[in-house]
Amino acid sequence: MAMGANLSIKQVAIDLGIHANVLSRWCQEQQRDGPKAFRGQSVPRDEELAKLKRELARVKRERDFLKDAAAFFAKDTLRANGDSQVHEHWRMSNSWKRCI
To answer: Is 62 buried (19+), middle (13-18) or exposed (0-12) by CB count in 10 A?
Structure first.
């Protein structure tokens, strides 16, 4: 846009809402390095970041599923054992906290 149009770098920068020095530097990098001037076009770091984001989303889904499953089975345990047994177990398992 800045190099092909009959507009000055300053005018294009104003239209884009960036500083003219930034656009000028980008134009110089484009002339010097060609298509490799702007990293982020499928470089390994970006591919790894995308892979890690997908993995994080998958792990979060798994975590949420396991939390739901634990809550489901905890309800079954409460119904099967009766409330008094559960409260007694909780009281005994937390008695160590009083020693601290």
So the answer is: exposed
Looking up tokens 């739901």 gives 68
Q: What is the pLDDT of residues 68-91, one digit of tens each?
A: 999 998 887 777 666 555 566 656
Q: Is 88 helix (H, G, I), strand (E, B) or coil?
A: helix
d(CA 84, CA 86): 5
pTM (whole model) above 0.70: no
Distance (Å, rounded) from C-alpha 8 to C-alpha 31?
Answer: 16
Residues written for the chain: 100
The pLDDT assigned to 69 comes to 93
Contact 73/65 with Cβ under 8 angstroms? no
**For all residues of the chain together, what is the average pLDDT?**
79
Residue indicated by tokens 């009083």:
98
Q: How far apart are CA 32 and CA 94, in angstroms?
A: 68
